[in-house]
Specification:
The protein is α+β, with helices and mostly antiparallel strands. The chain is 16% helix and 44% strand. An eight-stranded antiparallel beta barrel has the order 1-2-3-4-5-6-7-8. Strand 2 (31-35) and strand 3 form a beta hairpin. The radius of gyration is 15 Å and the shape is globular. The termini are far apart.
Length: 96
């Protein structure tokens, strides 16, 4: 019984920690977010790149604003896998 409980706990933690992997960009190619499964993301805008962290909570991504302790930008993960952000920003996964 204990082994089953441990297995269930491990599976639940793995499901909750599922991160993104890959590069997402806006339609004009001016904004790029490159996500790693370890919770880091590189944000590139207008040729300048900064690394920060993100947390996935179900269908929401909270990307920490670089240089701040608590501010984050929230993105909704759409059914098609794209990311919807503030001010109408839509990021789509790029093929590489």
């Amino acid at each position: 019984m204990r082994k089953i409980a441990i297995l269930v706990l491990v599976l639940l933690l793995a499901a909750c920690g599922k991160g993104l992997n890959g590069t997402y960009a806006d339609s004009m190619g001016m904004i790029h977010y490159t996500f790693d499964r370890d919770g880091t993301v590189t944000v590139e805008m207008l040729g300048k790149a900064q690394q920060t962290t993100y947390v996935r909570e179900k269908d929401t991504l909270k990307v920490k604003v670089p240089g701040t302790e608590s501010e984050a930008v929230d993105f909704t993960i759409n059914q098609d896998g794209s990311l919807q952000g503030p001010l109408g920003v839509r990021l789509e996964k790029q093929d590489k």
